[in-house]
Amino acid sequence: MQKRKRWMILISCKTLHIHYYVSMELKDLRIAIVCDWLTNFAGAERVILKLHKMFPNAPIYTSIYNKEKMPGFENAVIRTSFLQKFPFAKTKHQWFLPFYPLAFEQMDLGKYDIVISSCHSASKGIITKPETLHVSYCHSPMRYAWDGSHEYLRTYRFPWPVNNFVPKVIHKIRMWDRVAADRVDKFVTNSKYVKKRIKKYYRRDSEVIYPMIDINEFSISGEKKDYYLAVGRFTPYKRFDLIVDAFNELPYKLKIIGSGKQEKELKARAKNNIEFLGHVSEKELKETYSNAKALIFPQIEDFGITPLESMASGRPVIAYKAGGALETVKNNETGLFFNHQDIPTLKAAIEKFEKIRWNSKKIREHAKKFDSKIFEQKIEKFLLESYKDWMKKTA
Asked: What is the DSSP string of 276-319?
C-alpha cells in the first residue's frame, strides 16, 4: 500500500510538471536583455528596441549607454558597466575593446529564467547559471576578431602609443570570443550569410530569424521619381566612395542621407548632381525613400535594413550581389544585382535599371515578408519552445 502511494505521488508530480510546460507563457518568466552598447542607433539597435517593446519589463544590460543618441529607450530600465564612467566612452567605444570581456563577465544575471543577448561583439560572454537559458541573437561573429580584423586595423586610427599593441589585443580577444561563444545555449541569427560564419568560427548551429521593419510606417508615393538614393554611415565598407565616383560619371541625380568619418572626402569629390542631406527626420527619410528611383546598396552587409525600407516604400534596390542582400532582394523583381564593386559594373547596372518598368505594389508585397509582426511571432515561439526543452533537460 505504501509503495502504491509513492507511485501515485510520483505520477501526480510528473503530470503537474508536464502541464506546467504546456501552459507556460513568456509573460510568466523573468527575462533580461543584454547588448554590446547603446551609443548610436543602427540596425542592431532596432532589434534591441523591438525586444524591449516585446518585453517591456525586461531590464537591458549593456556596457555603455548614450541616451541622447538612442530614441525609444526612454522608459527602459538600463544597467551599464563600469565603462559608462570612462572618458569618451559614449563617443569612442572602439577604444575600450580590451575591457569588454570583463565588463560583461561582471554582470550578475543570476535571477533570470531567460537572458537574450543581442550581440555582434562581446555581450554573449555573460555568465549565466545552469538553470538560465541564454539565447544569443547573433548579428555577426565579432568582425574585428575574425574575418574583419585586418580591415579594422586599417580603418580605425588609434592613438600612436597603443597602435602597436592593437594586433596583440585582438589576438587575445579572438581567443576569448571563441570561449565566450560556448557559453551560449542557443544561437539565433539574422541571415543565412551569418549562419555560415557562426558555423565557421564558433562551430555552432543557429536558427535564422530575419530582422524586421514596421511595414505600415512606409508607403508608396505617386510622385515622379527623379533621383537615386543612398543611406547610411560614411564608413569605408559601406562603399559610398564607389557610389559617388559612379554618379560623377552619370547624368542622374543622387541624394545621400547620413554622415560619418568620410564626409569631407566624399563631399570634396562629388559633382553637382550629388546632394548630401545629412541626418534627416524619420518622416523625411520615409518620404525620400518613396520618391526615389531606387536605393543604391553597394556594400556587403550581414543583413541590411535599408533595402527593406526601400522595398516597403515600393522602390527597388540596386545591390552588390553578396551578403544579406541575396536574402532580401529578388533579382529583376524587387531590384537588380551587380557582380563587382567597381565603377563600370555599377554604372552598367544603373543604365540597365533605367530600361526596366518596376511594379511598386509587387515590390512592397515582397517586403511584407519581413514585417515586425512576423519577427515577434518567430522570436516568441523560439524562446518558449527552447525554454520548455531547457527545463526538461535541467529538471
From this structure: EEES--HHHHHHHHHTSS-EEE-S--SS-SHHHHHHHTT--EEE
Higher pLDDT, 227 or 26: 227
Q: What is the pLDDT of residue 292?
A: 97
Cα four-point dihedral sign 323, 328, 331, 336: negative
Structural domain spans, the chain: 23-212+373-394, 215-370
Q: Cβ distance 118 to 34 under 8 Å?
A: yes
Superfamily of domain 215-370: Glycogen Phosphorylase B; (3.40.50.2000)
Rounded to an integer, the average pLDDT of 323-352 is 97
User: Binning pLDDT at 50, 70 and 90, where does residue 281 land?
Assistant: very high
CB 235 within 8 A of CB 262: yes
Q: One fold for both 23-212+373-394 and 215-370?
A: yes
Tell me the three cell numbers of residue 210. Answer: 530575419
Residue 94, C-beta contacts closer than 8 angstroms, at least 6 positions apart: 156
The pTM (predicted TM-score) of the whole model is 0.88
Count of CA atoms in the C-beta half-sphere (13 A) of 372: 16
For the chain, give me the number of helices (H) and strands (E)? 15, 13
Domain 23-212+373-394 adopts which CATH fold? Answer: Rossmann fold (3.40.50)
Cβ count near 254 (within 10 Å): 24
